[in-house]
Amino acid sequence: MKDRVIAFVRERAAIGAPGTTPRVIEGGASFAYVFGTVLVFLLVFEAATGAALAAFYSPSATDAWGSVAYVQDQATWGWVIRGLHHHGGGAIVVVAGLHLVQTAMAGAYKRPRELVWWLGLLLLVLCLAWAVTGFVLPWDQAGFWANKVELGIAAGTPVIGEQIKALALGGNDYGNLTVTRFYTLHIIVLPAIVTLITIAHIVLARRHGNTAVRARAAAPRWPDQAFRNALAIALTCAILLAYVVTQHGAELAAPANPSQAYDARPLWYFRWLFELRVLAGSGEKLAAMIAPAIVGGFLVMLPFLDRRPGRGVLTRLPWLGMFAGMLALICGLTVMSFSRDGGDGELAKRQAAAAKVAARARLLARTNGIPVTGAIDVFSTAPMWRARTIYAQRCAGCHEDPKDRKGPLIAPGHGNRAWIKGLLEDPSADLYWGRTKLVKQSLEAQQREAASGGKPAQPDDGPKDLAMKPAPYKGAELDDLVELLYAQSGASDVDKSKATRGSALFESACTDCHSLGEGVAGASGPGLAGMGSRDYYTSFISNPKSPIHMTEDMGQMPRFDKELSLLDRDAIAEYLVWLRTATKAELDALGPL
Amino acid sequence: MGDKDPDRRRFLQVATCAVGGGVGIVVAAPVLRLVLDPAGRETVTSPTDPLDLGADTLLRIGEPPRRVEIIAPLVKDAWTASHNVVLGAAWLRRTGPNPGDVDARSAVCPHLGCAVGWDPDKGNYLCPCHDSRFSVTGDKLTGPSERGLDALPIKVVDGRLKLTWIRFQMGRSTSEPV
């Protein structure tokens, strides 16, 4: 037995064989032999572009996305190199596939070249794994979610699945150690292994010499075959470059966000497995394991299945037919997967939304930089993000315009002259206090009074009419009063003489209820000192029912001094001041939250 | 075989080298361009506006120099933006009775960039790395440094110390900003 194994290996490794001359191509130079050399070129190509990318990449969960976004959007030609590196991986799979087909067609897997064939299959599997380890490195939504699915499948491996997953993750969950481990696999472990096996594969292939595809005279490798190889490499390079330029490099989705669902799709060369899982339904994990095992098993066993020495295509039709069938199935499933996505309108909508989020993240990263808390917080660098986020959560329910609004509308122009004028003309209008309890109770009280024929109200009648009445001014006088109130905000464009005239009007018509004294409550209504200024808003938001603001009787808005920090209240106040001079377009230009 | 036709063989050799060289250049050029890119950029920003170091009453005549940390409100470092980043330190000293009579020296040793400390026993500055000593006014005393401590622009505005942070070339006899 031992002797037989040794003899088998000696023959397959061509040890002690009377050496064919590796400088000669049997049957003449041919484009059929270019694929191996193109693959070697692509490996070197990936190493060169990868080294340049590694000079920028920062392997940590907080930094990875930012460093990749920097290469993609800021470093000169960074997107070209990243695109070449990404799609170069796809090129390796394509060329390796062609290499495999050529080898199978030529029957070059047959004795004594089985070892070369197996090493080649191993290299193909390793290159696929290599691509998987690279896809997660940008730590974007696309790579992150694809990796989650891939490790989920790996975790389904019988017996050792969970261990594989924990080892790959570097612990119990996605984090810094996940990035560092995949990075190590991608730039150290797999390159080293692939390099060694590639050398073994080439050395063995040279020892055995090529399997002639034609009955012609032998030709020297240099320059006859080398010239064809060079042309094939140039063609590969040109296609790759053209593709990268038309695609503007490789996709970079938004930073990985475990809380935000994403339509995860694997790299295109795994799409056939993805489609198989969809078709398999509940048996998806089984399909994901068994299908590659069948394809891999067949390819590994091919030298044993097809044992006859003849290499003619016609004599091997059953085996080549099975090979071609598998290949056609893989291609068909790939096409099905893409056409399934292409026909899914809902998916297209979700993908368009995800693309918008990605574009926003990249724009913010370019203009503001990424907070040290991590790439996912890049969204918080948008202008007034904190204030707008709190506003959306805590304020918009009562102050924005859906039909169940309970308070005054807050919109661009809030607190400007036109807004104040409108308030003075009709405080109970829908835009102002119209939807508040204050106005509704006032209307009830008025109806009660009308029904009772003008009898004075009794204490137990219910709520009183406390709502503000329109200011008794029109035209220039009204404008003067508006200017006085507008001046309270501290705006820089106040017309002082108008405001001074407004003071006299205020004294005669408003002071029964209101006051303009600093920190002073009105006789029966809100104090108006500083109205529309940042301090005023902070104070109002802190406690709207304070005696200097709406008072207990008239106020409806809850106090926020316990729920929101002073910093947050001040941030909202700053936002409200900004809104005074803002337009709808400017508000929209701040971008989504 | 090619040997039978030396012209064709020669042509193939030249053509192969030409195509191979072309591919090499096409691949190498963008790779090199990307790797060289940061060399021509300000990848780490440094504040150019004066930084507030506190009230000028911190400094009194006759007291030894006071060390203050220089903290940048915002530093953009390639892709990250960090707030309140410590850039280094400066030594501040009052030189006269007027509010503006203040002197600021970078704590970066002009020799090779170590952090210069104050030696209260000798009443002068000492760099711990190579024992350069500087007088209280910043002049070079002993040791390998080729110049005295670098002066930093400082002003007093409304009672606040406002310092402009500058990094200087090291190992030269004159003060030149980086």
Task: Please provide a written account of the structure.
The complex is a heterodimer of chains A (593) and B (178). By secondary structure, chain A is mainly alpha-helical. Chain A has helices at residues 2-12, 34-54, 64-73, 78-106, 114-135, 141-155, 161-169, 176-208, 221-247, 271-280, 284-305, 317-342, 345-368, 385-399, 417-425, 437-451, 475-487, 496-509, 534-542, 551-554, 566-581, 584-589; strands at residues 24-25, 219-220, 370-371. Chain A has a two-stranded antiparallel sheet. The two termini of chain A are 71 Å apart. The model of chain A has no long low-confidence stretch (mean pLDDT 92). Chain B is an alpha+beta fold and 178 residues long. Helices cover 17% and strands 31% of the residues of chain B. Chain B is built from 1 helix and 10 strands, in the order H-E-E-E-E-E-E-E-E-E-E. Chain B has a 4-stranded antiparallel beta sheet with strand order 5-6-7-8, with no helix packed on it. In chain B, strands 1-10-9 form a 3-stranded antiparallel beta sheet, with no helix packed on it. The termini of chain B are far apart. The chains are: A mainly alpha (593), B alpha+beta (178). The interface between A and B is large, with 46 and 29 residues. Strand 3 (370-371) of chain A pairs parallel with strand 3 of chain B, so a sheet runs across the interface.
